[in-house]
Each structure stands twice: as C-alpha cells, then as structure tokens.
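=== Structure Prediction Worksheet ===
Name of assembly: unnamed complex
Input type: mixed (protein and possibly other molecules)
Chain count: two
Listed entries:
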Amino acid sequence: MANIALPAPRITDASGHYDLSILDNPRARSYYRRFDGILIIVLFSFLALGISIHYALTAGDWDYWIDWRDRRWWPLVTPLSLMMFIGGFVYPIWKAFRLPVIATAVTTLLCLVSWVSRYFNFGQFTDFPLSFTFPSTYIGLGVIFDSVLIMTRSLLISAIVGPFLFGALIWPLNWPLFAASKVPVEYSGTLVSVADLMGYQYIRTTTPEYLRIIEESTLRTFGGSVTPLTAVFSAFVAVIGYSLFLLLGAALYNFAGRYARRII
Amino acid sequence: MNTAKSRSPARYLGNALVLGVLVLLALPMEAVAHGERAQLASMRMRTLHWFDIEVSPVRVNVGDTIVITGKFIPSEFWPEQLPSVTDTAFLNVGAPGPKFIRVHSEVNGVPMIRSTAFEPGKLYEFKSVVRARVPGRYHIHPLLNVKDAGTLVGKGSWVEVEPSPTGEPFTNEITTLTGETVDLENVGLKSVIGWHLVWILVGVAFLAYWLAKPELFIPRYMRVRNLGPEQANTMITRRDFLAGGIFFTISMVLILAGYLWAEHKYPVTIPLQTGKVGVPGRPVPSGPLVVEVENANYELAGRSLTMRMKLANEGDSPIEIREFVTANIRFINGPAAAAGVVENEELVAGDSLHSSVSTIAPGQHVDVVLRAEDSLWETQRMTGLIHDPDSRFAGLLVYRDAEGKRYYQEVGGSILPKFF
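=== Predicted Assembly ===
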C-alpha cells in the first residue's frame, strides 16, 4: 500500500517559525498543490454563495431590474454592499497568505452567479427579457481594488484608496451597459426612459412603480450635478463601510487565529 | 429474522413515504392560487369595491391585445390602521410574470404609467390593455398596489394564449425620442454581453495570475509566519507589483473607454422618471335612495350576511334592489343571467340576495331585511369574518329604477356573528 501520509509542517523554534525545508520536498509540494486546489474550490464556492445571498439581501432589486439602477441610489447602495462583504475577507486572506485576490474573486464570482440566476430564474423560468434584468458589472472595480493593495502593500492605504475608487468609478464602469436604457421615450403623453417603459410594460405584480427607491426631484441638487456628487459621496461611504468590515474581519481572524494556528 | 425485519415499523414508514411521494408526483395539480382569498375577510370587504370587471377577449394569439376594464370605489370604511389609497397606489395587472406586456393603462382617462392616489367614496373607471407574449393559460386580474398596505386583487378571469399563427417570435418595438426604433426584448443586450465578456476576461486573467502561482495557501502561510508582519510584504514581488500596475492601468483605460463609447453612442439620455400623477375621482351614482344600516349579522351555519336597514326613496321612480357586491362576490337578487354576467366571470351567486321588500315606491320609507346567502361565503374564506379582530363589514348595494338605470352606493357598519 502506497504511503499517502502528508509531510506535516514542523515548527522549529519557540517563536513559531516553520521549517521551510519541507517546501523543497517534491511530494510535499505536490500535496500542498492539491490542497490548494481543494481550498480554492471551497473558498470560491463559499464566496459565490455568500456574496449572492448577501447581495440579494442588501441590494437585490437595485441589481435585478434596469429601472431601479438610477444615478443616486444604485451607485450608493451597491458599492457599500460589496465593500461590506469584501472587507470581511480581505484582512484574513492578506494577513495569512498575502493574497490580494478577494475583491476580484468576489466581483467575478458575483458576475458569473448573477448571469446564471438571470438567465435561468428570470429568463427561462419567469420569462423576463435579459435586456431588463441583466446584471451590472463590478469586476473592473475589484481588479482596481486588489491592484491598489498589491501596489501599496498596505491595508491602511488600500482601505482608503481602494474603496474610494470602488465607489467613485461604479457609474462610469457600468455606463456602457446602462446608457441604452436611459434614452428618452414619449409614452401616453408622458416622458419616460427606455428602462422606465420596460418596468411599466413587463408586468411585475408585486413590484409596483412606487416601490422603486430611486432619485426624486429635490431642492438640494447642487446645480444638478447628481452623478459626480453621488460618486464622491458613494466613495466616502464605501471607505467607511469597508473600513468597518475590515476591522470586523480582523477581530474575527485574530480571535479564530489562536485556534487555527494550533491545527495548522 | 428476515420476516421480522420486513415488518418493522421503520420499513412500513419508509414504504409509506415513498408511496406518498410517488402519489404526489403522479398527481400534479395546476397552481391556481393567486392570493385572492388569503387576506382577512373584513379587509377584502372594506378596502376596495371592484365591480363591472371584464376581460376581453379571453382567447388570443401571441401578439394580440386583451382589454381589462372595470370600476372600483375605495371604501369609506377603510381601516384606519391600514395605510390608505389616499397616499400612494399603482394600478397593476395580476399575472404570472410577464406573460403579457402592458401597453396602456388609465383611470378616469388619466394614463397610469406612474403611481397615483385615490379618494375614498369616489368612483374610478379603469382600463388596462395588455399584449399576449407567452403561450399558455393564465388567470389574470386587475389589482391595485397600495403603498405600505399591500395588494388588493380584483376579480380574475382565465385567458388562453395560443402561439402566433405565423410562428414569429414576440417583438416589442418602440421609437425613442431620438428617432431610433428599438425592440425592448433585446435593447442594448449585445453591448451588455460584450462588455461583460471583456470584464470577465480581465477578472479571470487577474485571478489566474495569482492562483497559478506554485505556492498558495499552506506554503504562503508558512512563509508569512516565518517572515513576520514587517517582512511578509516582501512576498509581493516586483513582478507582482508590475502585474498589479498593468491590471490597474488596463482597468482604468477600459472604464474610460467604455464611458466615452457610451457617451458617443447615446448622447441624449435622461434620468429614471418617477413622481405621482393626479386622477380626479367621480361621484358615485347613488341615485335617490337614502340608506341607513341599523345592524348586521353573519350566520355561520347559514353562510349568510343579514343586514337590517332603513331605506328611503326620495326619487320619483320605484327602486328595486338588485345586487350586493363585497370582496369581489356578486350576490344577485334573481337569476345571474339577468344581471349582465360576462364570459368567464367568476364569483357570481345568482338568486342569493333576498330582500324583505321587493320594490321601494317613490317617497316610501321602509325597513328592509337584506340577506346575502351562498356557499361562496365558505369557499371564498369569508367565514373568517368572525375571527377578524375588527368585526366590521362593507359592500356595495346595487339597485335600479323603473327605467333600468343602475345606481349603487356603499353600505357598511358593525357586524355580529350568529354561531347557532
């Protein structure tokens, strides 16, 4: 019978240093590589399920329907929702492995899961056209966020610059996807956008028009510059949301780390 | 030993379970519940009085239009604790998803693209025009979404939608104010898919760069631990730094390029439109009859609502009580066929309304006992009236004069149950 015992990492001194010579052992490297594969599958599955549930609960309708993606609330709610989730995972993965991939992984997985959901749940099962329910994209923001962490190698600086860019760039990133739905239409003597018209025509029994939480006219318009002002505000909100959940992730990691280290 | 095992309770239970599942699978039933009967009986009676609802035609092909017409009167007995139609409401269509598209809707002649508000005790005539989109058999209703309260469902009708005779797929073309004609079934979808593919490619490339490294979790953990917090950052190599910079630059350039492309392709855009529209209510044609409800009983065993009321005919033509309408049920005095029942109309109870006085002469003041009696009280879960926390009722009394002119007005008040 083949010997399949895993060469265990050994701690060689009182300060907890490992004997890294084991990494030169081809059999050990082979086992670690397989373990990496399993862990990637487990971690990515968890992230995919977690972000899809979290995002559905915190920003669901804003991403389900094109007539919810306005220029005031959607750019504010969605980065905050994503930053909360990403913030909770960045600290542990960075501290333990120095792997700056969480934001890209979360946004890419969310994109793929969302497409599956929109195609099957919204398209095949309930007959909504994809032009009305396609998901937004956040992958570019995830890549920028992780790249900032790579280039600064600092959780503190990246906690300011990364979420700031995440919030500020969400609208221009998605504008190529949304612009076609914001073209004006006259319908029954009323001015509507293509997105509004789709929301009116494609019947949603329990999602009436008034349920949308979208921009409404107000006296506080700052000269009508809604999009850039929302971008700046969204950037600050994203920084705060991310920082809070980064701290939460750090607290949980340090708490759980004491026990994890004994196992590994 | 084997015999005892085969007769064990667990085995019986297992067999019963399998059999039960098979029976359930073999007897698939059509889902016909739309929630009409789910709400409290008193809430259905005291919120909105839907009547004269007609869905026509009820057999169409994909692409054909169906018109839903009718009237409603927001109740003056609207429960105070329930958010009211006087705030925000939206005329909607109850259908199993977008099997139809709504091409027009109006109330009292005002287009209902947006939300509105209604006044209790006023008459509203509505019209919704839908186009069949997906073949099938559907139960469709008019309905009114009331902000913070919920959905009030009007009477439904079954509609059959056959595939288009030409076999062509459904299209939904509109012309924008910029002069473009687009099909809403797929407007902008090619660009959406194209940009998504671009970004998925970038995201996967970024992840591939990191996940293809020969050392990931356990080796990196060991190295991070050995290097300590100060030196661990050296694990991000110069090559990693360069890759990060490239990905950062590519992403920024793509975002800028995409934004400029969209601005160039769609130079005229507007924000999402919202805001309420006003719709004036019409007076209810209550005619010359003055009604005062004295009391009302609900008899559980008899499945009947009995109202005692004082009626005064202040007109110059005799009045005959024809119907009592509540919670979408029509209790008719006389045969249903004579009451203008439309094709596929549901919830009609002929010969179910009994009045102690058949005709009220001009100038006559009379005490009348009116009894609405039918099994629909039971099947529509109206017997729950006795369990509701506020025992009050309301409904629409429909009557006509000698010339056949129809009048109606709302009646209501407290109700006492009779258990025996």
